[in-house]
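FAQ: What does the model actually see?

It sees only this:
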Amino acid sequence: MCPQGGVNEALTVVKTDETLVRTDETLAETGKTVVKTDETLVRTDETLVETGKTLVRTDETFVETDETLVETGKTLVKTDETFVETDETLVEIDETLVKTDETLVKTDETLVKTDETLVKTDETLVKTDETLVETDET
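And it is asked to produce this:
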């Protein structure tokens, strides 16, 4: 019980190894610093950050982005595209990221998945049973 003259608030008090902070949000018990945020506090082994985005648990560092964060074993990067999980390194490019067994490349052309090596060309890439040859004809 609080002694007379103590704080009489409708906030829940929890036991934590950190300094108790006063907030309109729920306080969570965690081994990390408690921060005030408009989002739900989550328990994580990573540093909690104050952000306007949803906090997710991940083995990587948190980043702030306008896109949805996904939990993945890969590094999260900030990009204008949707995050994808891939065994390759994620790169920040203006084109769509695709998952492929080949190296991701930056190109002005559309990337297609094929059993052949991806090449950069001024022509449209098509999948065919024949060998692709460069020609002046369509």
